[in-house]
Write a structure and sequence with these properties.
- It is a single chain.
- The termini are far apart.
- The protein is elongated.
- It folds into two domains: 40 residues; 113 residues, no CATH class.
- It has a seven-stranded antiparallel beta sheet with strand order 1-2-3-7-6-5-4.
- By secondary structure, the chain is α+β, with helices and mostly antiparallel strands.
Length: 169
């Protein structure tokens, strides 16, 4: 009986030592740890410029709902805001405003534009996107339904408060 008691004590002692040594052993760095460390410390090349406008500032410039259309805000982050345009419960378009400070190439595509909407340079991207440049802000409408045409996109761009957006700094 003493033998079994000593055996239990020895097993408990060995288990305790095993747990103590494994818990106190430093963890070896994983293969992604160095990349994670570098990316979190990196200040230049960030996705959004520090001086980009907060997305919440853009909401007041979006067109109001009406005429059978419903506007539903879907995303708001620094430098960007987006809303879905719905008709009869179905998505027909995406409306967005983005600060091109973070993406200068987005503004560059307007330099050769000959088309204007609301007095601002406009571009068509494929068959589903229409965008204009208002100062440093890009206003874009993307069709999500074939019935929402290029003329519909242009009309909705003109419904944005473009004059107010132009004054935003």
């Amino acid at each position: 009986m003493i033998f079994y008691r000593r055996r239990r004590i020895l097993a408990a002692l060995l288990l305790s030592v095993l747990l103590l040594t494994t818990a106190c052993t430093p963890k070896e760095p994983g293969r992604f740890d160095q990349a994670q460390k570098e990316s979190t410390q990196q200040k230049s090349g960030q996705a959004v410029a520090k001086n980009a406008t907060q997305g919440g500032e853009f909401n007041k410039f979006f067109p109001s709902a009406g005429g059978g259309y419903e506007r539903v805000y879907t995303q708001e982050k620094k430098g960007f805001a987006e809303a879905k345009l719905k008709k009869a419960g179905k998505d027909v378009a995406l409306l967005s405003i983005s600060d091109t400070t973070s993406t200068p190439t987005a503004a560059a595509k307007f330099s050769n534009s000959t088309k204007k909407i609301g007095g601002y340079p406009a571009v068509e991207v494929g068959n589903t996107q229409t965008a204009i440049l208002v100062g440093k802000y890009q206003v874009k409408v993307l069709s999500r339904n074939p019935s929402f045409t290029a003329s519909d996109r242009a009309a909705w761009i003109e419904k944005f408060n473009l004059a107010g957006l132009a004054k935003l700094k």
